[in-house]
Amino acid sequence: MSANPRILLDADALRANLARVRALAPRAKVLAVVKADAYGHGLVPVARALAGADGFAVARVAEGIALRRAGIGHPVVVLGGFFDRGEAEACGRHRLDPVIHDPDQLPWLPEDVRPWIKFDSGMHRLGLGEAAFRKIVSRLAPRRPVLMTHLACADETDNPATAEQLRHFGRLCEGTAFERSCANSAAILAWPQSHGDWVRPGLMLYGISPFPGRSGAELGLRPAMAFRARLIAVRELPTGEAVGYGGAWVARRPTRLGVVAAGYGDGYPREVQPETSVWIGGRRAPVVGRVSMDLLTVDLTDHPGIAPGAEVELWGPNLPVEEIAACAGTIPYTLVCGVTARVARIETERSEDGARQGCL
């Protein structure tokens, strides 16, 4: 039994979340977003678990090539498009469909890919202005491109910017018969008028809420990641003893201090505040002292039966990552994407008798 931290990837949860997307947008095809190593969950295992999607979206050409080398045959869209001739040629060789967001890409566009043409409706990162968009759509019409935009404020359900972006994009696409794609996770959940022909779920596929102050469970989603480690020591401290770097936490009573084999070197946020908990022995226990690179400490005074070797959940089904992100003053994306390479990823499946089965 290793004490090293690990990520458990729940493939059943991924499929359940995909089914939730389909229930919310039943007339749309699903482009599952697996960029950034599938939001830290593992690119290839996630793509295999989500084989029921209609296609996958990645940010960069190299991510698409990794899917092809793993035997993934679905359509793969490169959201960042290609940057130079070499990347364009790689899109052709590996059958990757690039997003066109700049007229300078056109001379390199391979003949045998389906382009997605991006209109900048207000995000102002990548995307074409109106005149360039109309011109490129007309030029590439024989290829039956997908027309797309990206919503900047869909997670703010009372922000009129989303409705205005959708109106702007809709007006621009009038008179075309091409497929359209606007909706990210927040829009799938909160803006049904955005669904169009292709939805692009990302965060919600992993069971995480895109809305501040809400959990994935509240939205009918199941967390796909459980970040776990082991308790490796228990110390008895008298009142008044300080713990960790800088002595930032001082015991106010005789304390059973637990030492957990995980730290910011594994991706657990150093910035967590005193109200942060871990899950151990079926209950919460508070994190105390500063998180260090390889270890963190918890107060086990109210958990008298907990001994070294106990499993500790840092976030997962019992402890929403949204909560831990809030305690660290950040967003869930940064936590799941920030789990480091030294943390083992283990995929789990549910067997016929209901037991969890793990495989590296």
TrEMBL record:
Domain Alanine racemase C-terminal: 224-348
Species name: Methylomarinovum caldicuralii
Pathway assignment: Amino-acid biosynthesis; D-alanine biosynthesis; D-alanine from L-alanine: step 1/1
UniProt protein name: Alanine racemase
Catalytic activity: L-alanine = D-alanine
GO molecular function: alanine racemase activity; pyridoxal phosphate binding
One GO term describing the cellular component: cytosol
Superkingdom per UniProt: Bacteria
Record-level GO BP terms: D-alanine biosynthetic process
SMART domains referenced in this protein's UniProt entry, alphabetically: Ala_racemase_C (SM01005)
HAMAP family given in the database record: Ala_racemase
